[in-house]
Design a protein that fits this description.
Elements: H1 3-27, H2 32-56
Helix pairs in contact: 1-2
């Protein structure tokens, strides 16, 4: 696994943790530990995505810098491991 793949894996793990705790918070909205967990992993995921974007390009179309042309369709796509 190369560095790009490792970073994507870490982003995916943080996203899973966020999704999981959101489900818990739906039934336990006042749980302080769960809220802290959510904030921690939300911040972690944001930082990892920022790092990925700086090194490899945007992960989502809403993070594409606007210039004289639309660059989202330029290769490689974030999910293309071999790129």
């Amino acid at each position: 696994m190369n560095d790009r793949q490792k970073l994507m894996w870490r982003i995916s793990m943080a996203g899973f943790a966020i999704d999981d705790v959101k489900l818990f918070l739906n039934t336990h909205p006042c749980d302080k530990a769960a809220l802290e967990f959510y904030e921690k992993f939300r911040d972690t995921k944001k930082q990892l995505e920022k790092e990925y974007t700086a090194q490899y390009g945007p992960l989502r179309a809403d993070a594409v810098p606007v210039s004289d042309r639309w660059t989202w369709a330029d290769n490689p796509w974030p999910w293309e491991w071999e790129a």
